[in-house]
Write a structure and sequence with these properties.
It contains 4 helices and 9 strands. The chain is α+β, with helices and mostly antiparallel strands and 180 residues long. Strands 1, 2, 3, 4, 5, 6, 7, 8 and 9 form a 9-stranded antiparallel sheet that branches.
């Protein structure tokens, strides 16, 4: 077991936090008391109102208010009415940023990650220092590649920016998976 990351780790620019999350261990403590550990292998960065792929691109709303808080909170949201996606709020207060966890070792696609973690609305806004979901430092600093983010064709010039970070030895598996 590694040391639990503090909220302070997330209170940096998303483009620093995102690659630094690779190789870290995502820990979920279930109601049964069992803890499951997952190595983070694929993340995407979303940065500010100017980033047309970021939820905050439309400004402050009830839905996006959490992104405007100080880094160190969990931001989950539902897509397709069935998948809760895990994100970590990063950066400073009033500068909306976040990192989406797209894959953990052996589980590819943010929807599948959400299902494995049994996420729901109750996770929205909890601290990364909680007792039910946290990240531990593995001491690993893996090599990674950057590629464009997925599923954001609507974001015009932002769709080709390489703000997706994937551990190098996981690229083939991640790209061959059905990414949901």
């Amino acid at each position: 077991m590694g040391k639990k990351l503090s909220a302070r780790f997330f209170q940096r620019d998303v483009l620093e936090v995102a690659p630094d999350l690779l190789g870290k261990i995502l820990v979920r403590k279930f109601d049964s008391g069992n803890e499951h550990r997952f190595r983070i292998t694929d993340v995407e960065a979303y940065r500010g109102e100017e980033d047309k792929a970021c939820h905050a691109s439309r400004g402050r709303t009830a839905h996006t208010e959490l992104l405007y808080g100080e880094g160190g909170k969990i931001y989950v949201y539902l897509i397709y009415g069935m998948y809760w996606l895990l994100n970590f709020v990063t950066g400073d207060k009033d500068k909306p940023q976040g990192v989406m966890v797209r894959a953990v070792e052996g589980i590819y696609g943010p929807g599948r990650v959400g299902r494995a973690l049994k996420l729901d609305r109750s996770f929205r806004g909890i601290s990364v220092e909680s007792e039910i979901l946290w990240v531990e430092d593995s001491g690993e600093k893996p090599e990674y590649v950057t590629v464009p983010r997925v599923g954001i064709d609507y974001a015009q010039e932002w769709k080709d920016i390489e703000w997706r970070f994937i551990i190098k030895d996981q690229v083939t598996e991640i790209k061959s998976s059905r990414d949901i």
